[in-house]
């Protein structure tokens, strides 16, 4: 399945409820981090890794993200951003299905959460693996003390994913690997997303589709992310990210 990858889907429909008043009038992905919206830090580094098209799935206060997308595209000639509004805010699986029509003819693509930040060096390394390794789905993982805030990822010594446990109860996970929110796959994912049933949270969730891929014997491979990683889920996370990231240099 090796091949070129030029497109990324970024899921940016949510509000970020844990951030309280900070997202009352601003989508989480548009919060300022070192002088730029959070999502800009992701698109900047993926564009530098050679991606030329971004599909941003919007929902909460979508018009703010749409305005940003137009401005970012003007500032980055040759790179296209397509903003797609999720018809119903029914989870990450529904968001990916909203992006499907814009991925026709793409044998492989990257997708991920539009509100996660990590060290810049992780992105080109992930893209390299995504373009050169064999897999049905590849996901980024990062090491944490307890992956209860995300998804516990169980891998074998060859980094093949054997199990995914979404939001386990604190202290129950027997792995330190966490779903880092960046993936690569192909059209196959949509067959699994189309069969999803609502989770206990009442949502269609991408990890549920990945769990079924594992059960069907598909090759789901993990790539470890190193250094800083944050789901930017709390005001304290925002402050940590603002300390970590530097303002973007203006072009001369």
Description:
By secondary structure, the chain is an alpha/beta fold. It has helices spanning 38-48, 62-75, 92-99, 122-132, 188-194, 206-215, 235-244, and strands at 7-12, 32-33, 36-37, 53-58, 80-85, 109-113, 117-118, 137-143, 151-155, 161-166, 177-185, 220-225, 229-230. It has a seven-stranded mixed sheet, sandwiched between helices. Strand 9 (151-155) and strand 10 form a beta hairpin. Helix 3 (92-99) crosses helix 6 (206-215).
Which terms summarize this structure?
alpha/beta; seven-stranded mixed sheet; 7 helices
Strand order, biggest sheet? Answer: 5-4-1-6-11-8-12
The number of distinct helices, counting runs of at least 4 residues, comes to 7
Strand content: 25-35%
Low-confidence stretches: none
Shape: globular
Proportion of residues in helical segments:
25-40%
Q: Could you say which structural class the secondary elements and strand pairing correspond to?
A: alpha/beta
DSSP, total strands? 13
Question: What's the main sheet like?
Answer: 7 strands, mixed
Précis, in short:
With 252 residues, the chain is an alpha/beta fold. Helices cover 28% and strands 25% of the residues.
Give a topology summary.
Elements: E1 7-12, E2 32-33, E3 36-37, H1 38-48, E4 53-58, H2 62-75, E5 80-85, H3 92-99, E6 109-113, E7 117-118, H4 122-132, E8 137-143, E9 151-155, E10 161-166, E11 177-185, H5 188-194, H6 206-215, E12 220-225, E13 229-230, H7 235-244
Parallel strand pairs: 1-4, 1-6, 4-5, 8-12
Antiparallel strand pairs: 2-3, 6-11, 7-13, 8-11, 9-10
């Amino acid at each position: 399945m090796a091949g070129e990858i030029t497109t990324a889907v970024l899921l940016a429909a949510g509000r970020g409820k844990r951030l309280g008043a900070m997202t009352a009038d601003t989508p989480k992905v548009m919060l300022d981090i070192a002088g730029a919206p959070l999502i800009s830090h992701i698109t900047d580094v993926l564009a530098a890794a050679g991606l030329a098209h971004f599909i941003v799935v919007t929902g909460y206060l979508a018009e703010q993200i749409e305005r940003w997308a137009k401005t970012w595209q003007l500032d980055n000639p040759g790179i296209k951003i397509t903003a797609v509004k999720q018809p119903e805010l029914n989870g990450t699986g529904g968001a990916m299905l909203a992006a499907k029509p814009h991925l026709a003819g793409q044998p492989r693509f990257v997708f991920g959460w539009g509100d996660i930040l990590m060290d810049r060096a992780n992105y080109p390394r992930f893209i390299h693996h995504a373009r050169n390794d064999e897999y049905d789905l590849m996901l980024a993982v990062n090491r944490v003390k307890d992956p209860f805030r995300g998804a516990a990822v169980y891998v074998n010594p060859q980094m093949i994913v054997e199990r995914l446990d979404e939001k386990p109860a604190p202290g129950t996970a027997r792995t330190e690997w966490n779903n880092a929110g960046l993936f690569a796959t192909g059209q196959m994912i949509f067959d699994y997303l189309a069969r999803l049933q609502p989770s206990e949270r009442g949502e269609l969730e991408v990890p549920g589709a990945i769990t079924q891929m594992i059960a069907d014997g598909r090759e789901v491979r993990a790539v470890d992310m190193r250094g800083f990683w944050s789901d930017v889920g709390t005001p304290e996370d925002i402050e940590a990210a603002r300390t970590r990231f530097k303002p973007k240099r203006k072009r001369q």
